Amino acid sequence: MLRAMLRDLRAHLGRVAMTLAAIVLGVAFVVATWVVSDSAAATVRGGAQRTDLAALAQARTGDAVIPAGTVARLGALPGVSRAEGVVEGYAALVGRDGKLGTTSWPATAGTDWDPSQRFDLVAGRGPQHAGEVALEQQAAEEAGLSVGDPARVLLGGDRSDTATVVGVFAYRPAGREFDPAVAYDADTATRLLRPEGAPDGATSGSVPGFARVELFGADEQAVAAAARAELGAGFTVDPGAALRQEQADNAAEDGDIIRKALLAFAAVALLAGVFVIANTFNMLVTQRTRQFALLRAVGARRGQVRRAVLAESVVLGLVGATLGVALGVGLGLLAMRLLPVAGTVAYAVSPWAILLGYAVGLLVTVVSAYGSARRAARVSPMAALRTDAAVPRRSLVLRTALGLVAVAAGVALVALTSPEELTEPKRIQAMAGAVLAWFGVLLMAPVLALGVLRPLARVLRRGPVTRIAMRNAVRDPRRTAATASALMIGLSLVCAFSTVGETMTADLTSSVRAAVPQDAVLLRAAAFGQLDDTVRAKAAAVPGLSALAAPRTGELLVLPPRGRNAEARFTGLEPAGLGTALRPTVTSGSGDLRRGVLLDARFAADTGLRVGDTVRLRFGTAGKDGAVAPVEVSATVAGLHEGSDLLPGVLIDEALVPDGVDGWGDSVYAVGPDHGALRNALEQAFAQRPDVVVQDREQLLDDLLQAFQLVLGLVYVLLGAAVVIAVFGVVNTLALSVLERTRELGVFRALGASRTLVRRTVRRESVVISLYGGLLGIGAGVLLGGVMQYVILANPVFEMAVPWPTAGVALAGMALVGVLAALWPARRAARADILAAIAAE
């Protein structure tokens, strides 16, 4: 029995070619994901580990400096062979094009050179005296600089330095720290670099101190214990082994995050593959009804038939998994080679990746084929006398009932939530309801096919091609629905994310245009940096300026007069700039910061605060010993505002923010009576400052939306794998449908149909199925996206922004998919021999 089935499978490889393609693509996605995440973690572990460090000491607050005297005391401790203070400061590398690269992190992008394992020379040597500098290899490549070139480095406070590049290095961090872009010799670094948190214009020379201290010695635990006893509670001291383990754990955690994110897309691709495989086996079973009946008639038991079909699925699963694992490993290694990774790339192919690939390939194929195997086992021996095989009506009714229940339950779960009380559990409930309703639509796809295509067939009566194509699509709604559902899965998720993106884009655009005047001129920090007070002072001195706002954001704790304390963000800025250079949308009370603070309206609702309440705001400031010293400020709630990305949280007069509070400011907003003259004046004032970008409101919007669009583009590419698998499903369905209708096509040709008419009929049927899948995917996707944006943004579900361009492109793409997918099946149908087709059974 088993040998007979396997021979039949080998004799009709064309029937299962597209099924193999679906298995291979799904497995390859999973394996490639595992290989990329494992290789990324191995790259970090292998290329960035230091073995020379006994312990690392640093203040508990990131912006506190360690005095030189403390470094000397640590160097004299028992067991410490050497103590090295590490200088960190603002340093932004300017490229050949006069712009900053994206690899620099200007807040901590400069350091001092030392002979430790921090630096791994790639070319040249380390800097030894003033006028020399070494560059991190990725920063040097992006800047277009190499050994021997002059390099310009911005130092903050309107200062810069030009030095000759003498070396290029790869950096090995200790714990969590950013790679520096430049390294000077110790004396030059102390003289030029301004420590983070130091006053504007200050340098390490005028504010003596180090960002951290590296300790060297033979006994790591003894060195760390002695340093802890010497420094006290204001500092953290980590042994070298702990730092290495932390780095390995962080690498594994980052790899796990990448893996989980990509596996979610792999699951979508596999779900599409399930429909393709199940549809293929269902059609294969239908085509072999007489064969199964004859086997039953000669003594084969139901269990034997069922096991034989499952054995076919196991063989297909093994072959597809083998090819998929090989393709996935190759794709994963290729992706690691193409990724912009600094240093030596480590490639890792774990046994788990291979085992998971085989497990997924076998499980998906066997589960997809199980229903068809049961159906084959139920074939009666009497079916050998006839060739037709009707789908049991009860299964369609049960499937429809389950779909209706799922949709109703999903809608109810969403309806039981409200935007005003959208807590975390409620968000999970709403999202679960959306997914449940989405699966309900998948279950109802056959009935929806009848409901959509039958009326459409009555309307589109022009020409025999359309009538026959519509009739063929409607004759087996389960098959049509399964083919269309594979398309719907990928397309609905693309439309869902596109709906979320369109809604978030519309919200961001409206909030930015509401907050920033049309005639405002913006100064923004380049390359993830922030703007210091010299930028603000220089901008304020520009002629033609009438108002200026330089918001700075940070974290605080709100202590309300009643209820629990709540963490929040604050935005400190000048009262004169609020309402002129920046305009918050005030929903209640006054927008004058001189009267008190403005709270985000949603935050106020969550904490029960109202206009007129007195609140205490607790800020964390850096103490002299490195500890965090809380400072409280009392203020009156003057008004409530709609929070936005530009003006988040608690709006407060910057004069009330205590000194030493860590904050972040990357933008300055300026307005004047003549927008053009003001912009020209600011561009001239900062012509020599590539770390300061002058732009208008629309350019700001483009920058804010660019990163978001890149993320959406990546999502579309990853979901495209499911669409590709679905296309194979359309080809497979049509090809098997042509085989199934061999006799019908022969009669059609015998009655006078030309080959061109046959080809057009098959193509039209393909377009009908693809468009149905497209309409189903777009409709379900937009509604799913509406719930997703409701969960994320707390906007009402039906206030989402419908992505009409995406929907239009998707429908056109589905029509094109239908045409392309039908090329081979239509050609095969048209070339069928008339006499042989009529005689076929």
Describe, in plain words, how this protein is organized in 3D.
Helices cover 55% and strands 16% of the residues. The longest helix is centred in the first third of the chain and has 48 residues, at 240-287. It folds into three domains: 55-249, no CATH class; 445-517 and 698-841, no CATH class; 518-697, no CATH class. The chain contains 24 helices and 23 strands. Strands 3, 4, 5, 6, 7, 8, 9 and 10 form an eight-stranded mixed β-sheet that branches. With 841 residues, the protein is α+β, with helices and mostly antiparallel strands. One of its GO terms (molecular function) is transmembrane transporter activity.
Please give the largest β-sheet.
8 strands, mixed
CA-based shape: globular
Uncertain regions: pLDDT < 50 for 5+ in a row?
A: 387-394
| Rg on CA atoms, Å | 34 Å
Report the strand count.
23
Beta-strand proportion: 15-25%
The total tally of domains equals 3
Average the pLDDT over all residues and give the rounded result: 85
> Given the structure, what is the number of helices?
24
Which percent bin holds the helix content?
A: 40-55%
Distance N terminus to C terminus? 22 Å
User: Which structural category fits the helices and strands?
Assistant: alpha+beta
Transmembrane segments: 12-36, 262-285, 314-339, 345-370, 396-416, 428-453, 480-500, 710-739, 769-792, 804-824
Keywords: Cell membrane, Membrane, Transmembrane, Transmembrane helix
Pfam families: FtsX, MacB_PCD
Subcellular location: Cell membrane
